[in-house]
Amino acid sequence: SGRAGAIVVRGTSPATLLTGVGRYLEEVAGVDLGWPGSSVGRLPATLPAVTGTLTRSASVPHRYALNDTDEGYSGAFRDFASYQHDIDLMALHGVNEVFVPTGGEYPYYRALQEFGYSAAELRDWIPGPAHQGWWLLQNLSGFAGPVSEQLVEARAALGAQIAHHLRSLGMTPVLPGFFGTVPTDFAGRNEGAVTVPQGRWVGFERPAWLDPTGPVFDRLAAAYYRVQQARFGPSDMVKMDLLHEGGTAGGVDVAAAAGAVQRALETARPGATWVMLGWQDNPAPALLSGVDRSRVLIVDGLSDRYDGLDRETRWGGTPYAFGTIPNFGGHTSIGANTGAWLDRFHAWLGKEDSALRGIAYLPEGTGGNPAAFDLFTALAWQPGPIDQEDWFAAYAARRYGGADPHAAAAWEELRRGPYDMPTGTWSEPQDSLFAARPSLTASTAAKWSPKA
Fold it and tell me: How far apart are CA 414 and CA 388, in angstroms?
């Protein structure tokens, strides 16, 4: 609210205050806060008045952002200023929970030195920063390494700085948790330890999985969380994905293992929420049967991709966030399944047995496709369904500095094309063939993309 030049924003935390600022800038001042791109430089010297009072409240408590792979694809060697910019931008768009994998190697590096490994051996096991997202998912190890002591320490310091900035805004840093990832020879060095070989993942040898029901898991988990807490500070949300993309349980009881993982988390971080990625067949019903589901949040990567989804039945009423992965591999495409977002989010939220508690913005790489980011994050702050045509017309106006028939017509074509993709196959649009390797027969720019 407020008169010209004297705008008043009220909210319940620094992050929601920033969300209010974002709503004012876009809806009243008519400027764009894009990722990437910003037209804030067009603001007049005197801020325009608000007619009456502009009020927004979130329809869901969880507004989560970032994929496990984001750091690898968006820039694993950025400085704090880059992360701070992105965090502030997310806050301006209403995000309140952000995954922080930066420095995720540090608790492993310190804790495993208490379990028979030298620092040099662990630096050889830890992959380079651009591939650590897949290591944290238990898909690979050691690639693009060894890492140096200085790099491990520098990334830990950066991760702690990122987590501190999030907390200073009233946002939650979501940290990687411990669910059993260990070197393949761990059992030979630790009496009583039982590990399950995980085979290979797209050519890489996967780390072993330490049986969470065995006698060694609790001690290693306690060491991991002790180191993490001391270095990165508190967090009541921790992300872990058991048996990701082909992981095998061997003879381990999955329900019992999941229960043991959750108990170790509860011991170290009482009251913490276990964040899981909804992807392929995960999390499996057997896994969910072994945990306190009220302390779980599933960030669903497939909400807008397939038809006929019933998350309440599939996940037994476990709280989940409506999610999207609008690009894979950090592709520089434009477009998304926005029709599915607008049709499904409020419909799922209004179901009698709805377990929908959030949104989850999960592109494999960020910093592109600004319209998708703007529209998806707006879902949680609108009292009802958004009119797709009206939204894109308003987006074009603020993106380019005012209503322009040519810009509006161009964005209408984009709305009806790549931003209104059919569901059933992909959640990302076709990547440009200009991004493909030179070829006279190229039909896609990347293996994991829809065909042009």
Answer: 12
Residue 286 has pLDDT above 70, yes or no: yes
What would the pLDDT profile of 130-180 be if each residue is shown by its tens digit?
Answer: 999 999 999 999 999 899 999 999 999 999 999 999 999 999 999 999 999
Confidence of residue 433 (pLDDT cuts 50, 70, 90): confident
Which residues span the domain enclosing 369?
Answer: 60-384
Model pTM score: 0.96
Question: Distance between CA 406 and CA 266 in Å, rounded?
Answer: 56
Q: Is residue 279 part of a domain?
A: yes
CATH number at residue 83: 3.20.20.80
Distances (CA, A) of 250 to 46, 195, 278: 66, 9, 22
Helix H, strand E, coil C: the string for the chain is CEECCEECCCCCCHHHHHHHHHHHHHHHCCCCECCCCECHHHCCCCCCCCCCCCCCCCCCCEEEECCCCHHHHHCCCCCHHHHHHHHHHHHHCCCCEEECCCCCHHHHHHHHHHHCCCHHHHHHHCCCHHHHHHHHCCCCCCCCCCCCHHHHHHHHHHHHHHHHHHHHCCCEEEEECCCCEECCCHHHHCCCCCEECCCEECCEECCEEECCCCCCHHHHHHHHHHHHHHHHCCCCEEECCCCCCCCCCCCCCHHHHHHHHHHHHHHHCCCCEEEEEEECCECCHHHHCCCCHHHEEEEECCCCCCCCCCHHHHCCCCCEEEEECCCCCCCCCCCCEHHHHHHHHHHHHCCCCCCEEEEEECCCCCCCCHHHHHHHHHHHHCCCCCCHHHHHHHHHHHHHCCCCHHHHHHHHHHHHCCCECCCCCCCCCCCCHHHCCCCCCCCCCCCCCCCC
399 domain residue, yes or no: no
Tens digits of per-residue pLDDT, 100-133?
A: 999 999 999 999 999 999 999 999 999 999 999 9
Determine the straight-line distance between the first and last CA of the chain, rounded to whole angstroms. 47
**CA distances in angstroms from 432 to 231, 326, 372, 442, 446, listed in the order given:** 42, 14, 17, 11, 10
Query: Into how many domains does the chain fold?
Result: 1
Residue 190 lies in a domain: yes
Q: Are strands 296-300 and 204-205 parallel, antiparallel or unpaired?
A: unpaired
Determine, yes or no, domain membership for 35. no
pLDDT, averaged across the chain: 95
